[in-house]
Each structure stands twice: as structure tokens, then as C-alpha cells.
């Protein structure tokens, strides 16, 4: 109806004519309300990256107390739920019990729609009537508009609006409203959290740290299923890709279960790396594989690439240096019933590439296959993976040269460069010692932080890198045949 009102004036006129003859339709009354200057349900909304995924309504200045806890909670560091109580005067209509449902349907855009608050309460003065609470933002100064009065006239309801003292408690306020009331004015009150099973993982800013335990408890209270909140206390810079964390609220059990792309994983969040924001990327890469393909996962973690690939009937080699990750990888292979389809290793990434991966490549050279299969290598260690690419230099030196066995590499990296794709490509080329111009693609995985991107560069290892000689015989080596990205830029500038 909203779009029709703007796209066709003739249709709009016909709808208003219909409104004059059919006053029982809620949709029609929405149009009438718009005509009178009251636009039911139409609010400015703001998408915030914070504790919530739902839009937050921008509230008018009238009766802000309905969405604000008691001002005395400002500066609270230890949660006191009783302190959030307050009484707010709201507009109500006195309605006979038998027509309450009809009124709610006819004035559904004027009646209070606040989650957790009752729209209909008992009338303390008349047991045959009910009090219907109206939205104070739609009924400013406790006065109904012309369209609402017409609805009440049709239903034979007294249009007089009364005041009702509504008791609000901690349970009636949303997380962000509570935090906005508690933290110092003018400071950010939200911090995005990742959900890992029953655990909420937050990255609090310095000004939020004095309130960290209160923030944690609010998250537990307002998010069903979350029983533990942790805050990262340092960046991931350890050998095993985990980080120190502090339990802010709830139980201290960090062994949890998650589901991703129809697979179940169990893990100890304090000892292994897991990022729920990579679900789409795991699915994207596995979607590139076909049954019979070979996947070598150099930094496998607990198996989000390896396990779905094994279910897809790929030949899978999975490795991780962290003994805890290796333990949970084996556990999750059994949990998802692919333990007999994955060869798991607990090795340094370089040793894995120089050992099991090279050996499997040699075997692929000697196999005569009726159906062509692909060889994929996943390197998901964004902080360091590109530095491992030099391992591919002459990895198969001395072996019979074959273009049929040129592995496809999916290598992840971080970039703060103004041109992240170019930056990742040039760093990969420097590590390989060869150009990838025209032979690679880059995919933006996610924004990690302001001016910091996570990307995946995908390419086939050039034959002269892998074998140390041109392949097949007679062709010019790729390193001489292809221009570097810098050559291309200089040529473009000259032209």
C-alpha cells in the first residue's frame, strides 16, 4: 500500500474511496492514519553493529522514559536489577471485554507494541472492562487523532484517553537501552559479540572495561541460550592461534558445540581457534570441490574445511600444529562419521607440505585416471600463510613433468593496503618467485577491522615453480612469459 500510494495516484484515490466505505480493514485505517498525518509503523531505523541484529527504533522526544531505565543507574558497575524499576504514565482506552480483540485489530498501529509489555491490562474499577494501552509516541499529549476517533465511533467506544501508571522493570528494557543508561554519556555502548555455542565472545574497548562484568551479565540475561560471556584480552599472536580470555559472566565452561553448514563441531574455545564469521567461506571453498578431488588443509583447525570435503567424497589430508586442534579434529571426524575418510596430522605446516603433501602429489603423477580430478591446497592462516608459499618452489624438482598435476592453492591473508587485492597478489608472487598475473583470483572474505581486510587468493602453482623447469617441454617458462603487476602498471602509465 505504501508503494502504491507513491506509484499511482489513481490507485491511491481508489484506495481512499474504499476506506470511506470499509472502515473495518486495518490496512485501510493505516492509509487513513497516513492521511491524517500519523504514519503507523513508519519509523526511522538504524542498523547497528552491536549486541543486536534487529533494527533499533529512533525514538521521538515524547515520553522517552518508556525506553529508558531510571537515571540513577548511570555509572553502575555491579548489576543491580532492582535499580532499573520506574513508573511511566501511558495512555489507555477503557474497552468492554467482548470487543477488545476487535479494537486491537483495528488500531494495531496505535496500540503499544513493545515486546515484553502487555497491551491489555485489568481495569481496577470495572471487572467487565479492560484497559488497552496505547503507544505514547502515537498518542502525544494523550489525544487521539481524527482517524482513530472514527474507528472508536464505529465500535461504539468512548474516545476519552486516560492515564495509566505502567510499572517498568529490568526485564522490560533491551540490552542496548540498559547499557546506554549505565555507561557514561557520549561513549559507545555496544560491542559486537560472536556466538560460539553457549558462549558469547566480546571484544570490549578500553572505556568499557570497568563495566565488563555488568555487560557480560546483561548479555547472559537478554540472550537465551548464552550461559557464558568471555572477553579477549590480547590479539591472536601465539603459535597455536588461540588467545587469552577472561570470563565476564556465567559459567566457566568453555567446551562447547556449534553447528555450521549442517555439520556439528565440538571444541574447547579457550584452546583452539574458531570463528563463526567464516561459515560462508568454508561453504564457498568446499563448493568448488568435486567427488574424488584431493584436499590438503595445511592449517585445518578442528576441521571446517576438511570434514565437509570428506563428506563430499574427496580425498582429504588435514593438518594442524596445535595438539588441542588436532585432538578436536579427530573428535569431530568421529562425530561427523568421516574418521575413516580423513588422514589427520599434527605437524608444522612446512613439514606437512614437504612431507605428506609432496608424497601425495608424487602419487598423483603415477596414477592413470579415467576421470580428471583436481588437487586443492587450503592455507587458512591469514597472518602467516603467504610466507609459506615459498615451500612450493621446486617442490617436485626431479619428478616427471606434468601439467595434469598443478595444485590449486587457496591462500588467506590480511591486508591494510588501499588496494588489498593487488597487495595480496604481489606478496604471493614475491613468496613464490613468479608472476601470477592473469592466473589468479582474489576474494574478499570479510572486513576484520577498519582498514583491514581478510582476502583469499586462489591460483594454480605455475609449472616452472613446482618443477623447476618449463612444463610441458618447449613452452616458455611462466616466469618469462607473464608480466608482473608492476610491469603492467608502468606500461599503463607510459601509455
Mean pLDDT: 82
Unreliable residue stretches: 1-62, 473-495
CATH-derived topology of the largest domain: Rossmann fold
Q: Residue share in helices?
A: 25-40%
State which percent range the strand residues make up: 15-25%
Family: Belongs to the class I-like SAM-binding methyltransferase superfamily. TRM5/TYW2 family.
GO cellular component, one term: mitochondrial matrix
Catalytic activity: guanosine(37) in tRNA + S-adenosyl-L-methionine = N(1)-methylguanosine(37) in tRNA + S-adenosyl-L-homocysteine + H(+)
Organism: Odontophorus gujanensis (marbled wood quail)
Explain this structure to me?
- 29% of the residues lie in helices and 21% in strands.
- The N terminus and C terminus are likely disordered.
- Strand 4 and strand 5 form a beta hairpin.
- The protein is of the alpha/beta class and 495 residues long.
- It has 3 domains: 83 residues, Alpha-Beta Plaits, CATH 3.30.70; 79 residues, GMP Synthetase, Chain A, domain 3; 196 residues, 3-Layer(aba) Sandwich (Rossmann fold), CATH 3.40.50.
- It is elongated and about 95 Å long.
- The strands form 5 sheets. The protein has a 7-stranded mixed beta sheet, sandwiched between helices.
- It comes from Odontophorus gujanensis (marbled wood quail).
- Keywords: Cytoplasm, Methyltransferase, Mitochondrion, Nucleus, S-adenosyl-L-methionine, Transferase, tRNA processing.
- This is TRM5 methyltransferase.
- Belongs to the class I-like SAM-binding methyltransferase superfamily. TRM5/TYW2 family.
- It catalyses: guanosine(37) in tRNA + S-adenosyl-L-methionine = N(1)-methylguanosine(37) in tRNA + S-adenosyl-L-homocysteine + H(+).
